[in-house]
Amino acid sequence: MSGQVMSRSSQAATPPTQNSQTSLANLTVEELKKLFSIPIKANDEVQVKAREDAVLAVGKKLSGEKNTEELKNLILSTRPFLAVLGKAKAGKLVRTLVDYSLVIDEDAQIKVDLCKECVEWAKEQKRVYLRQTLEARLVRLYNDIGRYTDANSLALTLIKELKKIDDKDVLVEVQIEESKSLFCLGNLSRAKSALVGAKTTANAMYMNPKTQSELDLQSGILHAAEDHDFKTAFSYFYEAFENADQAEDKVMGTKALKYMCLSKIMLNEPEAIDKILTGKQAIKYFGSELEAMREVGKAFYSRVLKTFLAAFETYKKELMEDRVVKSHFSTLSESMIERELCRLIEPYKVVELKFIADKIGLPQVRVEKKLALMLLDKVFYGCLDQSYGVIYVHEHPGKEEGYKNAVDIIHVLSDTVNATYLMAHKLRLMETRVKASDVEKPVEKKRKKAGKKVKRTSSASSQTGSTSSAPRTE
């Protein structure tokens, strides 16, 4: 047995080729421990690279097998080997192994303990950047397992620290996670503020497609939750899907497609879901979550409440365990009840409330209240007779074209009167100017005549003066 271990260890100590990748992945954690017990020099790049690849291969295999406990043991057993690596390489290796553990859906507490232990080790080794990135992953883990208060408190502390050292990459990631935790805690205003902070930080740096996808997705979620602006939310979800597809992030791409379908349902356009899900890019993401949204869309299109409730019961994990879908469930249910009531009363002019309640499967009192609200909102036209327990359905009155035409004529006449008034005002101004000019002309003539007389008298006086001053001769 020891000979087999040594032979397999020697395989891991050689540079990995395409044929040796499977042998690296087949090593156990115990065999890796024995491999790490063999001392190597830090400047032996071949041996260091071989062991690094062996650790990553085994970690990826354990992550695929969802073996969280063994993955934790693997991370702990690599500590002696990390001393040989440089700080940058060691930090990258630890972060990668922690990311492998976070992908696993099970064993939440083991993952939390593992992250905390790695954070403590980074503190002991005085590796500040590694500690901060691990704490950022811990914030994300808290959000994933539903510990939103812990996520928010850790995010606040970490954001203050990251702003001092101006580490924008990790800062954006933590700010997005802070916004997620606040949204789940129901504090939409602070969630929006955190998202604005993330966008402000992102504007000053290059954003990789994965982070941009998370930013767009959170923007769409908040637009849908706070403003109920599903049209804008859909555009954000579409951008998130494009970036996730570019980053080849299947989880994020599936989530973006799911919320795109939700937006179309909330916009009362369930027929568009098939077009979204059968697109060239969307086919590879199809799974149980998207199938659940397709069933909800079918129920909305057919306007059958039982089908809608059955879809939520069948796909309970995919729908009710999703915080975003769950937050819109009551709105979806009320909208679905309205659609079914409209479908039931459409063929009748008079129908009993008891008959409608039996058909839809709801108490008569609730049906009566809902119909009254629909009448007030003018969803349909009719009259509710509570004394006889019936509802009279009237035809839609349609648009009153006569009133519209009368209003249009009034507007045209008003414009005509205004134009006539302006023309009259201009004519009055012209008349006053003409009159003023006519008055000024005789005055000017008199002035000119008076001026000529003055000149004549002055010239005559000058002539008489000259004759009188001349000496007389006899």
Largest sheet: 3 strands, antiparallel
Average pLDDT number: 82
Number of strands: 3
How do the strands of the widest beta sheet line up side by side?
A: 1-3-2
Shape category: flat
Beta-strand portion reads under 5%
Structural class: mainly alpha
Biased composition (Basic residues): 444-456
GO cellular component, one term: proteasome complex
Keywords: Proteasome
InterPro entries: 26S_Proteasome/COP9_Components, PCI_dom, Rpn6_N, WH_DNA-bd_sf
How would you describe the overall organization of this protein?
Residues 226-398 form the PCI domain. Belongs to the proteasome subunit S9 family. Residues 1-23, 435-474 are annotated as: Disordered. Residues 444-456 have a biased composition (Basic residues). InterPro entries: 26S_Proteasome/COP9_Components, PCI_dom, Rpn6_N, WH_DNA-bd_sf. Helix 5 packs antiparallel against helix 7 and helix 7 runs parallel beside helix 9 (128-144). The chain starts with a helix and ends in a 5-residue tail after the last helix. Among the domains are: 1-126; 226-345, Serine Threonine Protein Phosphatase 5, Tetratricopeptide repeat, CATH 1.25.40; 348-418, Arc Repressor Mutant, subunit A (Orthogonal Bundle), CATH 1.10.10.10. With 474 residues, the chain is mostly helical. Mean pLDDT is 82; it is low at 1-22 and 466-474. It has 24 helices and 3 strands. It is 76% helix and 3% strand. The protein has a 3-stranded antiparallel sheet.
